Each structure stands twice: as structure tokens, then as C-alpha cells.
């Protein structure tokens, strides 16, 4: 997969992480957070903007936050990655 597809999948995984937190489903959070980390590792970081790379490196911080902050952070990251996905050339 190329970076555009991977970022789209990563954004969806993080959206599911946020939904899992909101629903109180730690199983859902764990499954999709692992998927998000896998997607991150598939990306070619050399072709991404430094600000996106910085966010990707801080992805684990979502799990260390309390529930409300984790939901907000997962949604924020999801929105950023989705915007990046939409603005990458084909």
C-alpha cells in the first residue's frame, strides 16, 4: 500500500479507538490501537511532512491519557491524518 492508503486506514483505526473509549470497550481500543501502530510502521516517513512524522512518533501517548483526553486526542489525530490523506497526490 502507498502512504495515502495507509494514512486513510490509520485515520479510520484511530476513529475506532476513540469510539472504543467512548463505549467503554477496552477490547475494541486494544484491537484498533494495535492496528494503528501496524499502519504507522508501514508508512514511508521520508515522504511525509515533519509535523506528521512527529505526530506519528507520539501515537503511543493516546493510551497513556485518561479516557476523555484519550478520546479527544484520538479524534484529533484521526482528523489530521484524514486531512493529510486527502491532500496527498494520487
Describe it:
The two termini are 12 Å apart. The chain is mainly α and 90 residues long. α1 runs antiparallel to α2 (26-42). The mean pLDDT is 92. It contains 4 helices and no strands. The longest helix is centred in the first third of the chain and has 21 residues, at 3-23. The chain has one domain. The protein has helices at 3-23, 26-42, 50-57, 67-87. The chain is elongated.
Helix and strand topology:
Blueprint (H helix, E strand, L loop, with lengths): L2 H21 L2 H17 L7 H8 L9 H21 L3
Helix pairs in contact: 1-2, 1-4
Quick check: average pLDDT?
92
Portion in helices: over 70%
Number of helices: 4
Spell the H/E element sequence: HHHH
Radius of gyration: 12 Å
Uncertain ranges: none
When the domains are counted, the total is: 1
| Strand portion | under 5%
The computed structural class is mainly alpha
Biggest β-sheet, characterized? none
Total beta-strand segments: 0
Separation, N- and C-terminal Cα atoms? 12 Å
Describe the global form. elongated
What's the quick description here?
The chain is mainly alpha-helical and 90 residues long. The chain has helices spanning 3-23, 26-42, 50-57, 67-87.
List keywords for this structure.
4 helices, mainly alpha, 90 residues, 0% strand
Amino acid at each position: 500500500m502507498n502512504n495515502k492508503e495507509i494514512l486513510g486506514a490509520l485515520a479510520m483505526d484511530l476513529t475506532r479507538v476513540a469510539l472504543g473509549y467512548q463505549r467503554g470497550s477496552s477490547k475494541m481500543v486494544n484491537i484498533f490501537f494495535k492496528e494503528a501502530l501496524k499502519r504507522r510502521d508501514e508508512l514511508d516517513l521520508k515522504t511525509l511532512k515533519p509535523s506528521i512524522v512527529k505526530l506519528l512518533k507520539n501515537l503511543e501517548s493516546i493510551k497513556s491519557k485518561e479516557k476523555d483526553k484519550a478520546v479527544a486526542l484520538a479524534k484529533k489525530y484521526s482528523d489530521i491524518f484524514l486531512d493529510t490523506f486527502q491532500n496527498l497526490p494520487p
